[in-house]
Design brief:
This protein has about 475 residues and is mainly alpha-helical. The chain has two domains: about 20-210, Up-down Bundle (Growth Hormone, Chain: A), CATH 1.20.1250; about 220-430, Growth Hormone, Chain: A (Up-down Bundle). The protein has helices spanning about 20-40, 40-50, 55-65, 70-80, 85-110, 115-135, 140-145, 150-175, 180-205, 225-230, 230-245, 250-260, 265-285, 290-295, 295-320, 325-355, 360-385, 400-425, 430-460; strands at about 395, 400. A two-stranded antiparallel ribbon has the order 1-2. Strand 1 (about 395) and strand 2 form a beta hairpin. The longest helix is centred in the last third of the chain and has 31 residues, at about 430-460. It is globular, with a radius of gyration of 23 Å.
Length: about 475
């Protein structure tokens, strides 16, 4: 079904974004603040405050990726329902559920701890189901209104809004939760609910494209076998999944390693994580125009080179081969390449899947497979760490611990990521060496030529 007309309907041009695309940025910002609070660490901390066991924490952390499977059911009908219609209704239901989360800290003293834990799981289950039912329409909608030549530019701003809102939401939540009271948790969840409401205001103002003539498809979409037979799309799925097998658990276990083995406290680690998000914003600014000119694949290759260095350094830290002060910069710089990977991959996905008939099914299948791998990967790596808890192997005078095996295996498995990346095809992608030189040599040099005269004038005035 073609998207319905409205007064905000715009036609995607080849060289400009729709006039009201700013509403998409603000929606993403307020939405990110909402889910960082209500689906992120504040919610996990609340569950822990209630005394929820580790298995419940695992269930809460896995609800979002596991319920994403629902996208496979809804995506077949997304085009018939209408991308905008499906997204607005699903997100409205999602925000409404948060009212119960706001109320839960108040009613906990009356219903007891155990019922409150069960209620939290039930609330978050309905919350993530509502999200999964709607989110399969988001990327098809945005892909339809953002010109192909400007998708990297759009995504850089989109991710910048998300990163800034996430840092701000976590900082405010951390300040409110210094006392760890039920009233504090209620206030934090109220902030998440208010952010969700504001996001709905902007969601309703995102423009729609005009109906376009498309390849005729069944009212119930196309078969999943047909989607998987698309060679280019299948290669992209295999690449994305291989990345998550290696990388999905890295942030969790590097933080645990930094806390337990390096000896950095919880507070500094959270600030390092927030700083990584800010560094990621710098990457988004750097890639704003370059991704559309150079293509996504060169930047994915640069990220792979970073992962080689990244996991090698963590391995050396685990065997005391390098000083411990290397750990904070690693966490900090990782934010730059994490944002680079997210922007480059999402842009490539939009370009690969966006022009296909029933594109919602392509986006949904990619999201589901990657989400399931993302949810399972930390469990498998965690199981490995638990079984190697007391392992110590001495080779050539070097003592290998369980973290040495973890980081070493992740380093070796990057060869699989490299193989999957080599199989990806992208037309007009520039050579990696040229992109690296322009991004990390020419761009900083140009920036210095602009900054140096201003610094010189400032120094003269101070003198």
């Amino acid at each position: 079904m073609a998207l319905r007309n409205s007064e905000s309907t715009v036609e995607a041009q080849s060289d400009e974004l729709p006039p009201k695309i700013r509403h998409a940025y603000w929606f993403q910002g307020f939405n990110a603040a909402s889910w960082q609070i209500c689906l992120g660490n504040p919610m996990i901390l609340f569950a822990r405050e209630l005394g929820a066991p580790a298995v419940v924490l695992g269930i809460l952390a896995g609800l979002a990726p596991l319920t994403s499977v629902l996208q496979l059911v809804v995506a077949r009908y997304a085009e018939r329902i209408g991308y905008r219609n499906l997204m607005v209704k699903g997100w409205s239901s999602r925000v409404a559920i948060l009212i119960f989360l706001v109320a839960l800290p108040f009613v906990t003293p009356y219903i007891g701890i155990t019922p409150a834990v069960y209620a939290l799981v039930a609330i978050m289950f309905v919350f993530t189901v509502s999200r999964a039912a709607a989110v399969c329409s988001w990327l098809p909608w945005i892909t339809a209104i953002v010109p192909k030549s400007l998708r990297g530019f759009y995504l850089s701003r989109d991710r910048a809004f998300i990163a800034f809102a996430s840092v701000l939401a976590l900082a405010i939540s951390g300040t409110i939760l210094l006392s760890h009271t039920m009233l504090g948790y209620a206030a934090v969840f109220l902030l998440g609910f208010a952010s969700g409401l504001i996001s709905l205001y902007f969601l309703n103002r995102i423009p729609e494209p005009r109906p376009q003539v498309a390849t005729p498809i069944s009212r119930d979409g196309i078969g999943w076998r047909s989607v998987l037979q698309d060679r280019g799309f299948r290669r992209l799925i295999l690449y994305s999944a291989s990345v998550q097998v290696v990388v999905a658990a890295s942030s969790t276990f590097t933080v645990v390693f930094t806390r337990e083995q390096v000896g950095i406290g919880d507070g500094p680690i959270l600030w390092l994580t927030a700083g990584a998000s800010l560094v990621g914003m710098a990457a988004l600014a750097l890639l704003r125009h370059r991704a559309d000119r150079a293509g996504s694949k060169p930047f994915l290759a640069l990220v792979l080179c970073w992962w080689v260095v990244y996991f090698l350094l963590w391995f050396l830290l685990s065997v005391n081969g390098i000083p411990a002060f290397i750990a904070p910069p690693l966490i900090f710089v990782a934010g730059f390449f994490s944002s680079t990977y997210d922007l480059a991959l999402t842009r490539l996905l939009m370009n690969v899947a966006g022009d296909r008939p029933a594109s919602a099914q392509y986006f949904a299948l990619h999201s589901v497979i990657v989400s399931v791998v993302t949810g399972v990967s930390p469990i498998v790596w965690g199981y490995l760490l638990d079984n190697l808890r007391t392992a110590q192997v001495v080779i050539a005078g070097v003592t290998l611990t369980r973290y040495s095996f973890l980081f070493g295996l992740q380093f070796l498995m990057l060869s699989l990521v490299a193989l999957m990346l080599a199989r990806l095809k992208e037309s007009n992608a520039q050579p990696v060496v040229r992109v690296a030189y322009e991004t990390f040599v020419l761009a900083p040099a140009r920036a210095m030529t602009l900054v140096a005269p201003a610094l010189t004038r400032l120094i003269r005035r101070v003198r």
